[in-house]
C-alpha cells in the first residue's frame, strides 16, 4: 500500500436483548472457519472486539451486552448506555433476535432505538432449527427492519450468507489520504499518562483539551505540524485501560478508535507514566503496536516527578527492557510534558526512526550478510535434515520485510530467525522498528 493512503475499517456492532446468542455469533464470525481473524493481543481478554475479513473486506466486529429496557437497575443501565454508544459508533448493526423464543416487547424496544439511529441494520434471527419453516419468522417483520435472515450461530448454519449480506451493506471502503511526505504519529497509552499534554507541548498551542479525568479524549484527533522541511500528523487518542477498570461507557468504546489510530499510523509514541512505571496494560498496548508492525518510541512522561540519582535512568531502561522483551528495538526517551523537558527531542527521534523503518538494503549486501551469519552459526537441522537458506531479498518497508528462500520452511527455528534479525540490526540498525522475516520454499 502506498505511503499516505490507508484504508479505514468499518465498525459492525452486534446488539440485541440478553440471551439471544450475540456472543455466540461474534465468536462464530471471528473464530470460526468463516473468517480470517486478526486478533488484538491481550488488550481485551474477553474479546469485546476483533478485526475480521470476508471476501477481501476487513471490518471491526463489536460485541455488546444485552439491551433490556424493562429493567432500570444500575448495571443494566450501564450496559444499555454502552450498547447504545456502540450503535452510535457503528457503520452497520447486526440486530440479533431469538427465533425459538419468538418476538417479545424488549425486541420491539431495541428496534425503536435502531430505527431512530438511522443506521443500516441487518435483522438476524438466531437459533433457527428448521430452515424450511421460515414462516415461523413472520412475526419479526413487525419490527420494521426488513426481512429477518435466519442463522444458527451455534452450528454455523447460514453464517456465510449473513457475511455476504454484511459486506454488501457496509459503506464503501474509505481511503485516508495524506500527503506522501507526512509522517503519521499515534500517541497511545493508558488514560491519564499525559498524552494530550504531550501533544499540546509538541504543537506549542492548546489544540487538545487537557484534563486529569481519564477518558477526556473521546476521539482520535489529528493535528498537523511542520518542523523544518518535515511534516507530521499527530493523532492524540483516547486512553486504553483494562476492561475490568472501565466504568465510563464513552471511554470503553473509545478504545476502538485508539486502535484504529495505531492502524493508520507510521510511528507510535507509547507513553508510560514514570511514577507508576511499567504496567501489564502498558505491555498489552505496546504489544498491539508491535504486532501491527508499527515503529515505536517509548516515551516515559512525568520524569520531573521522579527522585533520581546517577543510576535512575539506567535502572528504568533495564526494567523496560525486561518487561517489554519483544520490543528491545524501541528507543527510550524521558520527558516531562508539563515542564517541556526534552520534548524537543521527540520529533528528532521520530525523524530518525522514520529513516530506520524506511531503510532498504541492496540484495547483494543482504545476501553477503546472510552468508557470513551462516558461517558463524550454521542453520538448524532435525533428524538428519538440514535447513538451507538459498538467498534473501527485501520485500518492503514499514516494517522492513525480508523474504528468505529455503528448502524446508518447517526446519526454521524461531531462535535462528531471532539470530538473523540480530545480525540485521547489528549491521544496519533498524532502531525503533520491528523486522518481519518471511519463509518461502524455493
UniProtKB/TrEMBL annotation:
- What Pfam families would the database entry show? KH_dom-like, MMR_HSR1
GO molecular function ontology, one term from the record: ribosome binding
Keyword Repeat part of the UniProt annotation: yes
Which part of the chain is the EngA-type G domain? 10-174, 183-358
**InterPro entries linked:** G_ENGA, GTP-bd, GTPase_Der, KH_dom-like, KH_dom-like_a/b, P-loop_NTPase, Small_GTP-bd
Q: Does the keyword DNA-binding apply?
A: no
Q: Which residues bind GTP 2?
A: 189-196, 236-240, 301-304
Q: Which domain of life is it from?
A: Bacteria
Q: Detail which positions bind GTP 1.
A: 16-23, 63-67, 126-129
Described by its record, this protein's role is as follows: GTPase that plays an essential role in the late steps of ribosome biogenesis.
Assigned protein family:
Belongs to the TRAFAC class TrmE-Era-EngA-EngB-Septin-like GTPase superfamily. EngA (Der) GTPase family.
> What is the annotated quaternary arrangement, including any partners?
Associates with the 50S ribosomal subunit.
Protein name (Swiss-Prot/TrEMBL): GTPase Der
Amino acid at each position: 500500500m502506498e505511503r499516505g493512503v490507508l484504508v479505514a475499517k468499518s465498525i459492525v456492532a452486534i446488539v440485541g436483548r440478553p440471551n439471544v446468542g450475540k456472543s455466540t455469533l461474534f465468536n462464530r464470525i471471528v473464530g470460526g472457519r468463516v473468517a480470517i481473524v486478526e486478533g488484538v493481543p491481550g488488550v481485551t481478554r474477553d474479546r469485546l472486539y476483533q478485526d475480521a475479513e470476508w471476501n477481501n473486506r476487513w471490518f471491526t466486529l463489536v460485541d455488546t451486552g444485552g439491551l433490556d429496557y424493562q429493567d432500570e437497575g444500575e448495571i443494566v443501565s450501564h450496559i444499555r448506555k454502552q450498547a447504545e454508544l456502540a450503535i452510535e459508533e457503528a457503520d452497520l448493526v447486526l440486530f440479533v433476535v431469538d427465533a425459538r423464543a419468538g418476538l417479545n416487547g424488549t425486541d420491539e424496544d431495541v428496534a425503536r432505538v435502531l430505527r431512530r439511529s438511522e443506521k443500516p441494520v441487518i435483522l438476524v434471527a438466531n437459533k433457527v432449527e428448521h430452515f424450511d419453516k421460515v414462516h415461523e419468522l413472520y412475526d419479526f417483520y413487525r419490527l420494521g427492519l426488513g426481512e429477518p435472515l435466519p442463522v444458527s450461530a451455534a452450528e454455523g448454519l447460514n453464517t456465510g450468507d449473513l457475511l455476504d449480506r454484511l459486506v454488501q451493506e457496509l459503506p464503501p471502503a474509505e481511503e485516508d489520504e495524506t500527503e506522501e511526505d507526512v509522517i503519521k504519529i499515534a500517541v497511545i497509552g493508558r488514560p491519564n499518562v499525559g498524552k494530550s499534554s504531550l501533544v499540546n507541548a509538541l504543537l506549542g498551542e492548546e489544540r487538545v483539551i487537557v484534563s486529569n479525568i481519564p477518558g477526556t479524549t473521546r476521539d482520535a484527533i489529528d493535528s498537523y505540524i511542520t518542523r523544518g522541511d518535515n511534516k507530521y500528523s499527530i493523532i492524540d487518542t483516547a486512553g486504553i485501560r483494562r476492561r475490568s477498570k472501565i466504568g465510563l461507557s464513552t471511554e470503553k468504546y473509545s478504545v476502538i478508535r485508539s486502535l484504529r489510530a495505531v492502524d493508520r499510523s507510521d510511528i507510535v509514541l507509547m507513553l508510560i507514566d514514570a511514577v507508576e512505571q511499567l504496567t501489564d496494560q502498558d505491555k498489552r498496548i505496546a504489544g498491539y503496536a508491535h504486532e501491527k508492525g508499527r515503529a515505536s518510541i517509548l516515551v516515559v512522561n512525568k520524569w520531573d516527578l521522579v527522585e533520581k540519582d546517577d543510576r535512575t535512568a539506567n535502572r528504568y531502561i533495564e526494567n523496560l527492557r525486561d518487561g517489554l522483551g519483544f520490543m528491545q528495538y524501541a528507543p527510550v526517551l524521558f520527558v516531562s510534558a508539563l515542564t517541556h523537558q526534552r520534548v524537543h527531542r521527540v520529533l528528532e527521534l521520530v525523524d530518525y526512526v522514520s529513516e530506520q523503518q524506511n531503510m532498504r538494503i541492496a540484495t547483494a549486501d543482504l545476501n553477503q550478510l546472510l552468508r557470513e551469519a551462516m558461517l558463524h552459526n550454521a542453520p538448524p537441522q532435525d533428524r538428519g535434515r538440514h535447513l538451507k537458506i538459498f538467498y534473501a531479498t527485501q520485500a518492503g518497508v514499514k516494517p522492513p520485510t525480508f523474504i528468505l528462500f529455503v528448502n524446508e520452511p518447517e526446519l526454521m527455528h524461531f531462535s535462528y530467525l531471532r539470530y538473523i534479525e540480530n545480525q540485521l540490526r547489528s549491521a544496519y540498525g533498524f532502531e525503533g522498528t520491528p523486522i518481519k522475516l518471511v519463509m518461502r520454499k524455493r
